[in-house]
Each structure stands twice: as structure tokens, then as C-alpha cells.
Amino acid sequence: MSADALLVAEDLHRSFGPTPALAGASLAVAAGEVVAVMGPSGSGKSTLLHCLAGIVPPDTGRVRYRGADLTAMSDAERSALRRREFGFVFQFGQLVPELTCLENVALPLRLERVARREAERRAREWLDRLEVVDVAGKRPGEVSGGQGQRVAVARALVTGPRVVFADEPTGALDSLNGERVMRLLAGAARETGAAVLLVTHETRVAAYSDREVVVRDGRTRSLEQVA
Ligand SMILES: Nc1ncnc2c1ncn2[C@@H]1O[C@H](COP(=O)(O)OP(=O)(O)O)[C@@H](O)[C@H]1O
Ligand SMILES: [Mg+2]
């Protein structure tokens, strides 16, 4: 495993009751690298992402972020780390329905005590980069699925995270909108130097990623191993 890896998972095992979700998954992500995680439904992709992000603790195995053992941190340390260094995009944006799109994107900055004016200025900049500045004043219920996901990407990137976790961010979109979200996410990550861990079923993902990893039965494989 390379010494300069930003985020490293070593031999993760995790079961939910009798069901093994991870059974020896390992992965190393370098700074700025875009890694696509593929694999059939139920193979453990989301669990792997959640372990790497410190949301789900593995039963055994270790996760290290910039050398620090995530599994050994307190809950408070892990949530602070997630807020400051990680960004998240889910399949259904999970935007706060009562807030406008601009307020949604500004929210992570507000939680870090950035003043409202500054937070909203930066939020607007990110909405602009994701080509959805026109929906800034609308609530998530008033925008299309594709627009909502681009707002969600803006929200994930606004804090300048080192790692973006995206779990099937285009899963609920048609292929045209899916590609647009993918292109904008990958482009923004490259500009900011954020690493991206992207779970996806998009067939054209190779165009947006540096590397593809396949999860099968809770284990990680390289594309060559499953071919
Ligand atoms: N919170 C949970 N409770 C119970 N079973 C779970 C939970 N999360 C995942 N699983 C099970 O673990 C396995 C892997 O799930 P998951 O990581 O969501 O796979 P994927 O994202 O590849 O579809 C599946 O069998 C799933 O049903
Ligand atoms: Mg999943």
C-alpha cells in the first residue's frame, strides 16, 4: 500500500446480524484520486463507504485517514473530522426541504461558524460552478432531480473537503442528467484536489475516474481480477 495514501482501509470485516456485509475489504485512496467503486447490489459498497467515512465502525480491520486511526477516535473527534475534511453526496440529495438551495449549500459553512454573508457568498459561487445558480432561491421540492443532485454536490464541496464520498449520486437520474452530475463532480474535484470515492453503476464512469475497484461479496477486487 502506497505511503502517500490519504485514506486507507485494511482488511475490513463488518456484519449486520448474521449477514456479512464486508469480509476482508481493503482500499487505499491517494490525495486527489477519483476512485469508482462498482459491484452488484448488496455486495457491500455502501458499507465500505460508511466505514471509510467513519459512519459505521468495522467489526475488525482498520481505517486510517492521514495516518490517524479512525477506529480509535472518539465519536466527537470522528464527527468533527467528517464535518471539516469530508463531503457527502447520496443517491437522493438529502437536502433539507425547508431551506432554499442556497441555504442548503451554506449550511455546512454555518455549522463551522462562518458568518452568514460569507457562507452565502461561497454557496452561490459553488451553485454557479455546478450550473445551478438559477435555483438558489428555490426549495429542493421545487427543482428537478438533476438540479437537486448538483446542489447536493455543491453542498459537499463548499467546505473544501479532502475526500468526497458519493454513493450512487446519479442512481435516480436519467443518463443525460447523470452524466452531467458526474462530469461536474469529477471536474470540481479535480480543480480543488479533493479525492472522490464514487459508488456508481454508470457504464461510462471510466471517463471520469482514475481507477475502478469492484466489490464482490464484501471484498474489494481490481477490475483485472474480476475480468
Ligand atoms: N444497516 C444494516 N442492517 C442490516 N443489514 C445491512 C445493513 N446495511 C447493509 N446491510 C446488508 O449488508 C449487505 C451489504 O449491503 P450494502 O453495503 O448496502 O451493499 P451495496 O451498497 O453494495 O448494495 C447486504 O446484504 C445488506 O442487506
Ligand atoms: Mg449501496
UniProtKB/TrEMBL annotation:
The keyword ATP-binding is annotated on this UniProt entry: yes
Keywords: ATP-binding, Nucleotide-binding, Transport
Domain ABC transporter: 7-226
Protein origin, superkingdom: Bacteria
Chloroplast found in the keyword field: no
Pfam family, one: ABC_tran
An annotated GO cellular component: plasma membrane
SMART domains: AAA
InterPro entries on file: AAA+_ATPase, ABC_transporter-like_ATP-bd, ABC_transpr_LolD-like, MacB-like_ATP-bd, P-loop_NTPase
MF GO annotations: ATP binding; ATP hydrolysis activity; transmembrane transporter activity
Protein name from the UniProt record: Putative ABC transport system ATP-binding protein
Organism the protein comes from: Micromonospora sediminicola
Classification lineage: Bacteria, Bacillati, Actinomycetota, Actinomycetes, Micromonosporales
